[in-house]
Every structure is written in C-alpha cells, then in structure tokens.
C-alpha cells in the first residue's frame, strides 16, 4: 500500500535482484563455516557437563601431548581484565562477562560453558584431545527458573552481584542484577475506579534465535601480533573491538573480514569463538578454525530471556485505558543483561495511559548467557499486555481493534521514557488492519481470531560508507554493515537514486574493518536507516563533485549546474553524463571521484506493527494450526519492498514459533533437554499459511527517503496475536508460552 | 586413534561373517539414527556393515499371500508398491511420517525397529498389522513377532551377530483395514507425542471379528493392547465400542513427562488417536469387504 | 587411521577423494572436495541445509557415510545451473526475494528441484510438505513457496513450448 503522495522515485520502491543473489543460489557464497585459510588447524571446545560447578583444576597435559595437537587454551590464558562497560548498541554488555562467557575461569555457570579449547591438525584429533583434558569439578547446586533464582535460598552464581536499583544497597549478593522502575500517576486509585480490569500472570520460555548457520570463525595471529579474523557476524567491528578488549590487544592490530552471515537475529552481536581462536592461533602461529555444532549453538549461544510477567490493566466503561501495573522478571542466563530497559520501554509504548508502574527485574541463573533476539525484551511483555487488552475488549464487548484505536499513541504524545513520540503511525496501522478483508472474513467453526500491536524504538548510530566512481562511470558502494537480509541491494538502490543511475550501475559490498570506517552492528533495525544515510550523504558528495567537474569543464559556476538522470545539466549545454565526467577524472584537478560519509544519527523513528492471526484448535488433540495471518506495519519508506515484506514475514513466523512450540526445556539436572532442531520445534513450511503483508508508508522526515527501520517491530505483536486467537478458539485464556498442545489441553481441562 | 571401518557386503552370509568378525560392529541401513548417534558420541561402532548392498534386503516382494519387506528398504520405496499400499496403508503411512522426505529416502522400518525408540512411528502400525521379522544370525534364522522385539528404549531382542533380514506382513484379510495416527506439535519433522495403530477385520455382517490396537510413545516400548482390540470385536465399531476401546487403550498407558509432552496429555492422546485410527481402519475395512 | 579412496560422480563429473570410513558425505563434500555450497546446519538430518541427491533421491548429506557414494551419482547445488545459466528455480528465488541470509537456500533449491523433476504441477500444500525438512529462519517460507510455484509454472510453459 503506497502512500498516494509518494515521490516519483526511479529506483527506490522497485524490486531488483540483490547483488549477492547469484552467489547465494549457486553455492558460491562463502559463509562463516565455509572459509578456509592455508595451513589451517581445526579447533574444538570442551564444555562443562554441569550447569554449575567450581573448576578446581584443569590438566591439559595429555591433550597437549597427543600427536597432531598444536595448541590448548583454558580460561587462565585470558588476560585478567578490569570490568569495562562499552557501548555496543542494543547489546551493550560487560566485557568481563563476555570474556568469562567465552571461557570459564573459576566456575562453569551453565551446561555447555566453555572450559578449554584445542587446535589440532584435524577435527577428529581435536575432539579426541578434548577427551584427554581432565577437569576437576566441584559440582554446585544449580538454579534454572526465574523465580527459583530469585528465592532467598537460591544458589548464587556470582559473589560480586549486588542488586542495582533498590532503595537500599543489599548487604549480600544474589541472582538479581537489577531492578528497574518506570512510573507515573496514581495506579491504585485509577485501577480502583476502572470499569474493567484484566489481571494475571503470563510466562514465556527462553527461546533461541535459531539461525541455521552455526557460529564459526578462522583466526590467524602473526609473530608481530597482527591478527586476522574471518567470521560471520552482525558486526565485524564488534568482533574487532570485543576481541581486542578481551585480549588486551591494540584494536588496529586486528583486521576482521566479514563472511556471509547465515542469519543472526541479534544472536550474532557478540563473540563466543573469536577470542578463543585468536588465543589458539597465537600459541601455534597457524590459522585456527572454530565452528560450533548445532548442539553447541543451543547450549552455549544466546537464547532470548524467558520471562514471568504479572500485570493489571484497567479501562473505563468506554474502553479508555486508565492504569497499568506491570511487574516482569527476565532471565538473563549466566550473566546480567536481559534488556529490562527495553522491556519496560516497549511494554506500554503503543497506548496512552496516564497512570502506570512498570517494574522489571534482571535475574541470572544457570543457563547460557542471553543474547539479543530481534526487538530484545519486547515480545514477552507485549504478549502479556496485548492478552490483557483482549480480555478487556471481551469484558466491555468492544471490537479489539476499536479498543486499541481508542488508546493508540499519536505523534507528539509522551513516549515511554518521557520523550515525545516521533512520527508513530499506529493509528494508520490499526485502521489498515480494520479495513483489511481478513478482519471481517467469516470465522470457521473451532477458529479464533486474534489481533495485537507492537512497538519497537529502532536505532541509528555510527555508520560509514564510501561511494566511488569508476573510470567508466559505474559506482561502487562500500559499507561496514554486514548484510543479513538484502541490505546491499537497498544501499545500491539509494545510491542509484541519488546519482540518477540505473540500479545495475551501482554495486555494493561489505568491507573488512581495515577498509572502511567504524560501523556499529547490523541490529536495532538501524542499517537501512543509518548506513543508508551514510550512503546517501556520500552519494550526494559525489554528485556535488560531479557537478563541480562539469562546471569546470563548462567554465561556469557550480551552482549553475544541476544533476539529473545521471548527468550534469546546465542552460545552454549538452548534458554531461557521469561516464563522460568519469573518463576525464584522471586529467582533472582532484582526480578520482569518491566520497566517504560517517554518520551517527539519533533521529531514528520507531516501528509500529499490527498483526491479525486466525488459528484453529483441534477440539480433541488441542493442536493449533495457524489458518491465516496478516502483518501490517508502518515501514516509513520501503526501499526494496520485497525485502521489507520478507522482514515482516520472517519476524511474524519467528513470533509464531515463540508462541506455539519453541522453548528451552531443562531436565532435573539443569541440562538442556532439547538442544537440536528436532525437539526445539521451529516452524516448518507445512506449519504455515502464506503471511500477508500490508506496508504502511509514513515517512521518517529525518531520513532522505523516509526510512524507519523494519526488522524488529514484526516480532513484537505475533505472540499476543497468536495467543489471542488461540484463547478465543479454545474458549480459555492461554497465559503460558509456548502453547504446545499439552499446554492447551491442560488449560482447557483446568477450565472444566 | 581408531575409527570405524566401512563394509559393503554383497550377501547375507558375508554380512553375518563381518558381524561375527567385528565385535562392536553396527549394521548400517538408512543410517538416520546410527550416524546421528555416532556424530553425537552416543555410539562408537568398530565397523559399519552396510546391508543396503545385499540383494534381497531392499525392496518389497510377495511372500505367499503376504509381503516381505527387505530390512534395508527405505520408507519412500514402500509408496511405490501399489499392492502393499492397498493391503496395509496404515503401515506404509506410518513409515512415511518419519522425519522428512530426505530422511525417509534413507530411513527403513528395520532401522526404526532396531533403534527401539518408544516413539517409533512404524512400530505400532507393524504390531497392529501382526507383522513379524525374519532374523538371521550365527545360529541360523528365526522369525519373531514385531511386538516381541522392543525391550525398552534403545534395546531390542537381537543377539550379538544377528540382524533383521526382512519384515513380514500377512495377506490382508478379507474385510480388513488398518490405520496409524500420531500426535505431534508441528505438522511434519517431529517425534510422536503419542501414536496409535489399529488393524481390524469386519465380517460380512459388518461386525468386527478381529482387532489389534497398538500404541506408541506411551510406555518404554510400543504396546499391543489386547483389551482395546477386544473392545471392538463383536461390535460395529460404534461410538460405545470406540469409547470402551479408547478407555482400554488409555488404561494401558504408562507414559512419562518429558520434553515432548506431559504424561497426562499422552494418555489423553492415546485415546483420541486410537479412536480416530479405528474409524479410518473401519472405513478401509468397509471398502475391502 | 586409514583413509579409504572413493570414486564417485558429483554433478556428472567423476571425482576421487580419500576420507575416513566414518566421515559423512557432507564432510567429504565440504572438506575434501571443497564444495561448500552444501551447508551444515545441524548434522542430524533436521534442517535440510545439506540436502543433496543420491542417484536422484534427495537425502541429507550429513546422514550418508562418504564410502556409501562409491560408484553412485551425487547432485549438489553447484550442479543446478548449467553452463553458467541459472535454472528457473534459481532465477525465481532471486526474483521473489526467496532468500534473506541465503544459508538454507542451497538445500531448498536441491529439494525443490527434486520435487519439480517428479511433479511439474505441485499444489501449495504439496510444496510445503515436500519442503518441511528444510528449515528457513529468515523468510517465514512465504516467498520460497511462491518462488517454487512460479518456477514450476515457468518450467511447464517451457516444456509446453518445447
């Protein structure tokens, strides 16, 4: 659905083939596990079988003596670090924690925690060597669940962890890292006067990002300390700075070359293997490859936090929301950091509510350290809020979309952190959902229809781009932003639009950290916005140079030259094409035509999404089938609509999986019971219908083309949309995710 | 270090000789369980004895009035045998619920049986159908009812040096029909939370003359539930009989809570699936009268 | 440790390679033959990223022992395009934006081609169930299914015109 007033772009808004496409359909693309360096060794990581254990001693002598083994490292090989916090966008974390997560030092904090690693001439030898490493563990009591971890008598993971954000500093350590409170008005009075109140406890399980490509890297350290790393990640600069900081190296000694990334979804915004591979390579002087198995990915890389949310939300008789009281607890895993700020910020961001109190707790337990996952923190709490709104709509006999429209935030309304909302288009999304044929389609027996909204703030931040004109007038765009879903195409399109050239005349690549200026991770839905801004600025600088060159050729003022259709234009002159100007560049003062732009925009705009879901619940097996799904989203401006739709569809389906069947299951011993794709049940093609998309384009005035960022907002509504659909089909409110058939059966049985 | 050797015998006797010569050898059919176990470190055979290269161990052939299915026959190959599909659709369907197409192009019912997962899809269907298996070993050949083979999760009643040569299904009785259904959270690529196979025979008068009900994933091994079958015999598979049958099936369940589902739900599903499978089997039997 | 020498045909070309007897076909393709288009997503047959054909039937290369392919025909993603020209499935995947990260794409292409080779006119339902062994985490499958259906239509048209 295009805005009728959309400017007449020639390239933006079309659907060309991505520049890396042919490589990816022919098997040529080199992903993380595909790269091989000459003379490379193969590494393997020994992982703790215990969820919580003190490491008394590690004897690696037998492993080191095995023929073919060239290096062995343990936590003792890591430098001792001061605790440093550094800004890494949404995944800011404590570097010491990241180092300890890469390899345990004195304690293993979860099953799968790395305790040693080996590099050998073959993977088989490396794995055999692992079995020769003797670790003397003192097994400690473990704790997995959030509330169990918060209990006064719970085993404590970190002696140094004292809860932050309490009124008084606690006198002893606990598993509660942080309390965060956000409040306004008088919640209790407003709830007491409400005509309808929905309340209850909602829970979600920890879920994995589920990228199909396991973590992988190759590191090569030279005798002079200069180091190369080849890895797939959401940010080569992130790998560079984290690895350098963890290992106490000068940042410029490390060059990280990004390989094609096989999915990240936030889970590849930190390091697991790279510092270990560097240490192994440093010990033997040869390149070392580390690749996780799928089992390792599940046991040792970041799940998204599980959550327990208690809430009360009240509305007056007309459906105006009057108050909300939310208390949520997020499971951070082994180290603090479960996005409590983002969780709080997104919880009520869609609605005008005068009185609210949102309390969040960041809780550690003996699970893998949680990592960012697409709109980190938002989906579980929004599931609870959107479920409560569905109950209020039922209590008041209101259409659920009308209820949301009555309370929807508008531009300029107070935002979640006190700042006014920017150009939010929730009303437009809700109205589009209401007008969509899906909303009024008849419902078959046993079917239920749910709707939910979601907010994600998006992000901007630092990016660098260069735009160079080749001798024949074709263009190379270089960025430092790994392409996780077609961004090379959108960068080339934006440059082509500014330069007035066909898309095919512009090629875009992602460079290594030595070849482009710093750029933050591809995450926070920031790339098309922020890196796109850098590309546009660099393209505009190139246009300015092209105009100046034409002006010099014509002997007129720069201002008398305009740039249209890929050519300089001036009154009384034959247009001078970029090709003609480029051909003369070598003879011109100034020479080569190229420009670099570095940006750090913070005028990003939030993403809003509204999803409608129909589910069928089998009256006997209680199996849930998603029968129809429609995703509506304000995308600002869709540079490449197919890839914007793809983000909406992919986010929706990840959310459907989160709602229905995904979730970590731990056995009594605190070990992950379903660390594989068979029992960690992500949606397969036959589980789903087509995912209809409606793109609303309300441009962000702070971006030259109106881009807002689209990657994360679509995973915020589906948990609530699916839960509301299942609850209406089953005739009982489902409050616990995943809604696997046994859970639905239990809920229906409990209702009687 | 040692790694397993690989052998592709051309004959059954050669395979038996290899098994005898390599203690710790494993028979390799489809490999869809064994190779996963080896890679995960849960199995470390000294040798792989690939039986797919042995003539007669792949493919379906008539055996008297019934069928003999080579132990190394991939599940998808069963679909190509029209007579087998017509006679024992429940068995063929059960085998073709396992994994994905990629997996079923390799996986075999013999392997499904030997892997001895309580949730193996083909096993309840085979038990309901009254299947037997021909086992060869150092002491010669023996024929064992499928229901007697599983001994517990991962354990089967095979002696060292023995392997399954073929699965045998009887001729479809006049008025016979079978069906297998399973419950899974997804629509494909999943392990049964519960499964039920039913084979029954309707007489000319429409009354059930024989019925076998077998359950999967509700006990350490697939279960034959004679009481459930008995509840159908002498009836027109009407609602009351189905209710008695489902209750008998549920009463036989001894499930556990695990990552795949709760015990309560498994018992519930055993009844639901047995009832639904019986209705499909009844329809098939009526069309076979 | 004694390697065995395997002679096989990959994408129609004769190849020989040495491998551990217990190595998987996937390891042999990726490590010994450096055909890294076939991906490892799980190593347990649950994701389909390593889908290849073996004598025309699609299998997970991680669940085949390398010595098993001696004397047989293996087909991988690298063999789908002919003489540098994309197969209609590959072109439709690009046209429909049926890949985001592209890691699962080789497996999907081999599986989808295997379907269209035997069923030129599959329904959406058939496509979805045929591809249920191939996990994609980026796309939600919508554009993949559309690309396969569109490629099937184009191939039917090509055949009708031929």
Number of helical runs of chain C? 5
CATH superfamily of the largest domain in chain C: Beta-grasp domain
Radius of gyration of chain C: 16 Å
Task: Report, as a whole number of angstroms, the end-to-end distance of chain C.
Answer: 53 Å
For the sheet with most strands of chain C, the description reads: 5 strands, mixed
Task: Assign the CATH superfamily of the domain at 377-458 and 605-751 in chain A.
Answer: Aldehyde oxidase/xanthine dehydrogenase, molybdopterin binding domain
3D architecture notes:
The complex is a heterotrimer of chains A (752), B (289) and C (162). By secondary structure, chain A is of the alpha+beta class. Chain A contains 20 helices and 30 strands. Among the domains of chain A are: 148 residues, Aldehyde Oxidoreductase, domain 4 (2-Layer Sandwich), CATH 3.30.365; 229 residues, Aldehyde oxidase/xanthine dehydrogenase, molybdopterin binding domain (Aldehyde Oxidoreductase, domain 4, 2-Layer Sandwich), CATH 3.30.365. In chain A, the strands form 8 sheets. A 7-stranded mixed beta sheet of chain A has the order 3-7-1-15-12-13-14. A 5-stranded mixed beta sheet of chain A has the order 9-19-18-17-10. In chain A, helix 7 packs across helix 8, helix 10 runs parallel beside helix 11 and helix 11 packs parallel to helix 19. The radius of gyration of chain A is 27 Å and the shape is globular. About 1% of the residues of chain A have low confidence. Chain B has 2 domains: 158 residues, Uridine Diphospho-n-acetylenolpyruvylglucosamine Reductase, domain 3 (2-Layer Sandwich), CATH 3.30.465.10; 106 residues, 2-Layer Sandwich (Enolase-like, domain 1), CATH 3.30.390. Chain B is built from 11 helices and 14 strands. Chain B has a 5-stranded antiparallel beta sheet, covered by helices on one side. A 4-stranded antiparallel beta sheet of chain B has the order 11-12-13-14. In chain B, helix 9 packs antiparallel against helix 10. The longest helix of chain B has 25 residues. The model of chain B has no long low-confidence stretch (mean pLDDT 96). With 162 residues, chain C is α+β, with helices and mostly antiparallel strands. Chain C has 2 domains: 76 residues, Roll (Ubiquitin-like (UB roll)), CATH 3.10.20; 74 residues, DNA polymerase, domain 1 (Orthogonal Bundle), CATH 1.10.150. Helices cover 35% and strands 15% of the residues of chain C. Chain C has a 5-stranded mixed beta sheet with strand order 2-1-5-3-4, with helices on both faces. In chain C, helix 2 packs across helix 5. The longest helix of chain C is centred in the last third of the chain and has 20 residues. Chain C starts with a strand and ends with a helix. The mean pLDDT of chain C is 97. The chains are: A alpha+beta (752), B alpha+beta (289), C alpha+beta (162). The interface between A and C is large, with 58 and 59 residues.
